[in-house]
Amino acid sequence: MALIKQIRQRTGLAIGVIAVGLIFFLVGGDILGPNSTILGSSRTTVGEIAGEDISYDEYVQKIEQTKMSFQQNTGRNPNENELSSIREQAWQALIVEKIFSQQYQELGLVVSDEELVDMVQGKNIIGELRRQLTNPQTGEFDRDQLVTFLQSLQTADPQQQMFWAQQEKLFADSRLRIKYDNILATSEYATTTEGQLQHKMANTIADVRHIQIPYYAVSDSLVQVSDSEVRSYISKNQEKFKVTESRGLRYVRFPLHPSPEDSAATLEQINGLVAELREASNDSAFVVRNSEAQNPFQTINPGDPLPVNFSNNVEEPETGVVYGPFLSNNSSYVAYKISDRYDGAPRMRASHILLNAEGLEGEAKEQVRARAQEVLEEVNETGNFEVAAAQYGEDATSQRGGDLGWFFRDDFVTEFADAVFSARSEGVINRLVETEYGFHIIKVTEMPQTETKKLAVLELELIASDNTRNDIFRNADYFAANSTNATTFEANAEKEDYQVVSAIGVGPTARSLNNMTGAREIVRWAFNDASVGTVSDVFELDDAYVVALLSGKTEEGDGTIANPEIKAQATNQLKNEKKAAYIKEKISGLETLEAIKEVFPDASIGSTPDLRMNASVLPGVGFAPKAVGAIFGLRESGEMTDPIQEDIGVIVAQLNDIIPASEIADYTRYQNELTANASQRTGYMIMMAMEELAEVKDYRYKFF
């Protein structure tokens, strides 16, 4: 929707945001200030950026500004997931403001009044306004809309003027960041020597054989790792074992399953509605009013199946008859009624193999045509259309055997639709079909169907009643009240046969525990209020009550053997190092790959005839940059590398041949490639570097 309409039609949302802002302005000093009796001075800082504390008030104000933009753009309030994203956007905006403002000043970067006017009403309208102010008929930017809006600002309501002032500030801030990034991006440069090296890396090719001995080829019993060795290994390799702040939790979940009485009550209710649906004169209106289905009145197009729950229970449904209710897999009772059947536009089903020729002409296009003809002949000979589609198809359908599903004639370009809808039988069309996309080999899999159905879906969700919820809560509350520490928590869970679930490595911003969503309040409790061994009160989630135990606490810093995850990780790596040493000793002196395989039958021998120097992966082996580097250090055919330890095992390679990159007269292409790649990374790298230098600390998890 155009920006003008958004502003005019959604002033109510803006007024609501302003009201919230006024409340914070009038009482925020008491509620959230340094002397707050609610939060206290130690509870009002949500983070630090460049040594500056970010207050709760400042952060909330930025959230409200970001939320207001969302409301103006969408015409609605954000849901919980969107609100989480808005909070993150607001935080990133604060980082940018705090970090980059000083940089802008030192560099003398400004957006002048004249530049801002040009951005919002001159010859160089910014992209965001162009997208907002488009003519729905032409899809093009409509300057008249912009002029009308700007003229109306003089007499507009204060909230509209405030919104526009905020937008202009955002436009200016965005332009400053673009200028800053461009200064650094355009400073990137690659020398001729760097271009020459890039050419060499991309075009030096090795023909090589290699063997990989996986670590599992050595039994764990052959390598012993003591705790003292693990402790020493962790100490010497702390860069690998740095840990972030996290918590360990154990919890008991009390699902809100409906009782038999709830099921009987819901069944009685839907049976009453089924009786009314049988006599309803307007099925659509009835199910829209009474059904809890997401799509209560559906059009079933020709070829599309009826809902599985319906077709599994009724073989040949009649029009006008209500079937059900049936219990669904989604814990609901559902009844169905086919309200109408009629012949509509026909639909067919087909598969295709596309050989792309889009944009090609002349000889290049004829080569694709010849290749497509060869594939067609192969399909006719073998009958393996789906296999050929997976092998030769050049669009996304190749992964599903070329299947296009059911479609109307108008769903595809004319040439394709004409070929399919003129077919008189199922099977492969024995000619190529050319379209603007290329050459198609087509197999008709279903002949035309025309029957369209109107389906009324009457569904009632089977949920726990208030009485049932109260009973479940009492059980959870009793368990929590009698579980005062870790020992009693575990003992009571075992006594009552409750399942205790563990969640380890829970981060401060987590919103779920394992596959249990909506658990943000539990995470906040773990980081703010709980000490190790503390048992929580009852938490209410959408589909369960939860009682949690804080079982572990990990602070940010160096990893230690006391951390089970760190210990397991270090133990495995140390074992692999010892296994690598064992492998190297066993194959020492062996002169062929085959001889190595005799010692380690689990090893795999492979070959790569076109390995490039800039590769980091050995095909069929995996990520092996050290091995690739060693290969290109070989000089003579038949020469073998020393055993190389990689994460995936020990690798030995034997060179067949190496083809050096040819010398060329001009390395400009490779210089430009390096420069372009570096420039593309600049914006991201700047942000990461600035955040690191500013030592950003994020405490928002204490509040949200």
From TrEMBL:
It is a single-pass type II membrane protein. GO terms for cellular component: plasma membrane. The chain crosses the membrane at residues 12-33. It is found in: Cell inner membrane. Residues 345-446 form the PpiC domain. GO terms for molecular function: peptidyl-prolyl cis-trans isomerase activity. Keywords: Cell inner membrane, Cell membrane, Chaperone, Isomerase, Membrane, Rotamase, Transmembrane, Transmembrane helix. Signal peptide: none annotated. InterPro entries: PPIase_dom_sf, PPIase_PpiC, PpiD_chaperone, Trigger_fact/SurA_dom_sf. Pfam families: Rotamase_3, SurA_N_2. Belongs to the PpiD chaperone family. This is Periplasmic chaperone PpiD. It comes from Cyclobacterium xiamenense.
